[in-house]
Amino acid sequence: MIHPSHFLAVLLFALFASTVFGITMRETPQRMIRYGIYCFVLFVGSAIVLSWLMFLIAR
Amino acid sequence: MQDLKSEWGEGRVESLFVERDVQSRQYRLQPLDRIRYSQEEMATPGNKIANSPQASSSGSVYLPLIAGWLVPGAGHFLLRKWGRGALLSASVLGMFAMGLAMQGKVYSSAHNILDLLGLVGDLGNGLLFVLARVFGLGSDQVLVTTGDYGTRFIVVAGLLNVIAAVDAHNLRTGRKQS
Fold first, then answer.
1. For B42-77, how does the pLDDT look when each residue is reduced to its tens digit (9 = 90+)?
2. Residue B169's closest chain A neighbor by CA?
3. Which of A28, B9, B26, B62 has its Cα between 20 and 30 A from that of B119?
4. CA distance A43 to B153
5. pLDDT of residue B15
6. Most A CBs within 10 Å, among B52, B98, B137, B172, to test the A interface
7. Are A27 and A48 contacting, i.e. CB atoms less than 8 angstroms apart?
8. pLDDT attached to residue B145
């Protein structure tokens, strides 16, 4: 049984999901890696931005 | 333009399209009625499937789809895509295992629309879902905060597994080239 922090859960989710997206959505290995990194950055980046927005709205 | 009229005739020059020669990377004008003939060699979905290397191999075209759904990555293994299959398998299995480790809920019945959607997502895990139900893995109710994350991890693992299985099917039919 594990209790990861919210941020670690976001990182794990982004890692697994972007791996599958990269492999399935592109055809060449180089483009797969680039698209996977792009998805990972979008997942984590959007989570951070939305977190800050919610933090500022709640204050 | 006058040269083209004398070569192809007045009527045909009125409707031209630009053709790109892949070999020489040059563009040239062609009469529109040539499209009918050139389509026979184009990479239309039907031609791509017929000309694909996998299309001529034996076995049902649905085998990678079903195998990929039942066992994560198995569809790609059947097509000898070892690296991709291993990565997809590790991703789906890792996400499912993390979901269970976080005490995520494995849906067994649907009492409302949200439960039904969760159950459909869980079913995407194939045999992993069956094993989880048989051995009583996961929790029936979300009791801790991380359990809610875990529930989402399990559902999304199922959805990712379906995407991977469809990708294997597309590789098998030739809709995806490589």
1. 555 554 554 454 444 557 899 999 999 999 999 999
2. A24
3. B62
4. 15
5. 55
6. B98
7. no
8. 80
User: In sequence order, what are the beta bridge partners of B16?
Assistant: B31
Summarize the confidence of residues A32-38 as an average pLDDT: 97
Selected residue of B95, B144, B166, B170 to mutate for chain A interface (largest A Cβ count, 10 A): B95
Find the mean pLDDT for residues A7-17.
Answer: 96
CA angle B88, B93, B99 (to 5 degrees): 130
Of the candidates A13, A24, A27, which has its C-beta nearest B153's C-beta? A13
Mean of pLDDT over chain B = 81
ipTM field: 0.92
Given B90, B102, B164, which is nearest A24 (Cβ)? B164
Given an 8 Å threshold on Cβ–Cβ distance, is A3 in contact with B102? yes
User: How many Cβ atoms sit within 10 Å of the Cβ of residue B55?
Assistant: 13
> A27 to chain B, minimum CA–CA distance in Å?
6
